[in-house]
Batch of 3 targets.
Target 1
Amino acid sequence: MRDRPGAIAYVTRAAPVEWELLLFDVIGEPDYTAVVPGGGIEPGETAEEAAVRETLEETGLRVRVLRELGVDGGTHFFQAMSIEPADDEWVHEEAVRCYWKPLEPGLEVWGARGDLLPRLKRQRVVAYLTRAGENGRELLVFEHRDYPEAGVQVPAGRLDPGEDLEPALLREIAEESGLENVRIIGELPDSESHYESRYENHGFHAVADGELPDEWEHVVYGDGDDAGLTFRYRWVPIEPELHLFERPHPLLSQLLEPIDQV
């Protein structure tokens, strides 16, 4: 087992808040605990193929690569996901104990295999959905019917493993508001810098087409944290003093630009 292999696989699965990361302990070897799958790249093999093969050999789990996170010291780091059902814990070939660990700040893994863990932030999409109102462009906002102290918000949610940004955005809008006739204008530049969270945030401007009510209630569906909650929606003028998530929102000025320039 080498400390700086050629390919590392951060195998993740969705959890209620953060990713969970696949780790294993070598049975009877206390120096080898919290190990991330990985190993050397064989002749004629790509780094991605090596990450998939090493994960199968070391844990018995078949995976596919989602994205490359970077190269550090000649080692390729990938995010991957299982392509078959996986238990919460299992023993592979009577040699290693495999398990899932929440990917929380400060998580330590064996050797230098955790070097790029900070890049493994779970992605989140935020929907700034607008329509043309009588007095200018309006923004769709909501409040929790039963938790008004949460403040004024817009639809948002985390990506599932293997999900792309724009499909995730449309899914979140449908689940949280019931709207499906939506056009995505584009991602808002520099949206990440306006959030302080554990996620990699992507804000998008989208437009709701067709006849829409001025206000409505919607029961959130899907399997997210908000499933079953009732949101009260309304359209509000886009103004500098509008607060979202209980704070001023510099991104709102971008929503007032002509649509063909966004």
Target 2
Amino acid sequence: MIKRRKLIAVFAVAVGVASGSHVAEARYDNDVMSSPVGPSDLSGELFAFGFGYETGDQIAQVRVDEFRQLYPDVDIEFSESGFDAQGFLSALASGDPPDLVNLPRNEIGTYIARGVLEPLDECIEQQGVDMGVFYEGASSQVSVDGTYYAFPEFFNTRVWILNNAAFADAGLDPEAIDLSDWDALAEANEQLTVVDGELSRIGLDVKLPEFLPLWAWANGAPMISEDGMTAQLDAAGVVEAVEATAAFHEPAGGRAAFLDFRDTWDFFGAENQYATDQLAGMPMEQWYLNVLASNSPDVEITVRPFETRDGEPITWADGNSWAIPTASENKEAACAFAATMTSAETWIAAAEARAETRAAEGAPNTGVYTGNQAADDVIFSEIVDLSEMPTFEAAVQVVVDNQQNAFGMPPSPAAAAFQTAYQDAVNEVLEGSDAAEAMASAQEEAQAAIDEAAG
């Protein structure tokens, strides 16, 4: 694998580091789980782009080791890097293209449209994978016209994380505030924001521009059609969501003051914005609960699902996926690897290994959130034990309960361009531009990119 090793060195320099995992012996028998075909005569070499084993964490390493145990005659190496679009295209154009790619589901539509990803019909049959075990919010992101092009990996969702101390200081109850009433949220934001000479606490960080899809879908206004072919950025509901959320920065003194203060937070440390009362609340991916549990376990928070304007729970899901490039030279082994990495058994082995490690370290374990619902059912009912941390036990349960309410961004042939268009437009609005005009311009830009990419 001399050529592959040369590519690894190039990719490791060119792109950032990804996450990975460790090893476990446990096996679980459960007839509702998807499971890879057992050891076979599969052999040969595999090269996976967009993933790290040596640079990875325990969750990545356990799953890779599980595959190596099942298929000892397959020699697999990794780019030891995170996914990078230019790096991936360069790899495909090389004389030694990757056999697998780990890439964000939000971007997969671009590569499906280019015809560089293998349809998985034969792979699914070969490995006996039941695609029904994956969350709909994840599987819908990797399929076009009923054909799957990837197996969903992690399943990141968003919830409200509210600071009890800040709410109490403002005379508000984080359990009682109506999260579906944007006027009530705006009023609470003003009450929760503290400016005494200078800004010392942000009320509600609505997470713009990146979380606009969550606000728009909650307003009944999807930003793109279900088939990913029609941008809907200028829809009245999307414009309304932009206008309403942009106004949340005003009590802090405007976007610049807001960002300057937010940049001072110890986001991943013990002096984070919840522990120091610098923030009253924000919608955030569920993995941040592990940051808080590990660094400020005594912090008092209330976690609630995001809500639509009609008061129904909703969340936005994303995460990575495993796909097989059409140029792969060992598609059968690549299929076995992708299926193994996302099977319930493999996820459970990794989750158990992490739980054992965290227990040995005396550290909390808030779980591993996967795209495989069968895996999550076991992980959160049999492996995760937060009974000694009731605040986080309740928080994790909110996340788990809300996963069924997730939507995923539909696969679009111009996924990256679409995201750039709406995020740039929101930033313009935050700097003072008219929302309707900015989103109308973004609509033209996004639709043009989709039409061009679709050919």
Target 3
Amino acid sequence: MSRRLGVVISRTALRVVAVERGRVTWAAERALDGAGEIAAALAELAAERPRGFTRARVAIAGALVQVKVLSRLPRLSAARLDRAVALQAGRWFLKNGRPLVTGAARSGANGGVLAAAVERGVLDAVCDGAARAGLRCDGVGTAVGACAQMLGDGDHDLPADGVWDRVAVQGGVPIAIRRSKDAGDPGAGPPVPGLDGDGARFFPAYAIALVRPTPSFALNGSDPERSAATRRLAVRVAVVAAMCWVAAATIGLIRVNGAVRSSRSELITLGPALDAAVAVERDLTLADGLLTAVQGAQAARSRDAELLSLLTRTLPDSAYLLSLRRGRDGRVTVVGFGPSAAETLAAIGRAPGVVSPALQGGVTREMTGSRAVERFILSFTWRPMEPQ
């Protein structure tokens, strides 16, 4: 990123630089009277920053931070290394009755580890001040780790809070650190591009603006105690959630079982009424069938009576019928006797509703008493006239 604020904080001073394309375009500092003024001073200085600077990196220096190069630690991943140093913080750092936040990173090819510790209150004050100033903090680390990446190989003195950190740098990483209280020139140090004169004291702020903090501290102030508290809270939340799910499932099962029992009870109570309703429905179905059959029979009977009445009126004198059969297709066949089969055919053919009358078979003559009559078989289609 081409624009970033670099902040270095010690017990007695807070310095801020605005770095754009590798050069310092603005710098400011405030005197501090202890860690309690960090948040307010950081918010005040950041509020004065040039426009367009919204991100910052912070370096802790001097008596506020403890930095050591540890040796003979096992080869671990970065996350496990941080964890190992945090769990044994009391072995390497002074707590003074206050919780510490630690960070660790590999230092050189000889297996050394650069470890640092800062009080949780200091880190919380940094985060609070950045938030009040509307800054996004990209990382919090040590001034020693940031400056080492900008210095050449050899021994270097980094002053802060009246103490000196004598750092042996090799390949951009510190391989040995020794803190002393020897008085020296507080302005000594590498020059800072964009600052003249005594601008060397802003070198740690300039370095942290350009390089990533190594080691870095977790911005949420994580440490073994807080991690354990977070885990306990997560376990409690998980237990409460599981209990809520169990309670909801139990209530659901109870309600379902209650509904099933209620339904069964209602079915038992309504059983006789349902059986009676089914019997009534069955009887009604049978009655409908009987009524349909009776209506069909009445219709057929009325048609047969109408046909007989028609034939009775139509037959010539002395002619009579022996049998009558009507098929489903409406074809009527009659057998009878009469003086003349031809006259009988002609008379029936003139009757209303009679279609296609014809003689079937031959006509036989028979004697009935002293008279000769003809026996005939006639067939025709009868289509009764619809009432007007």
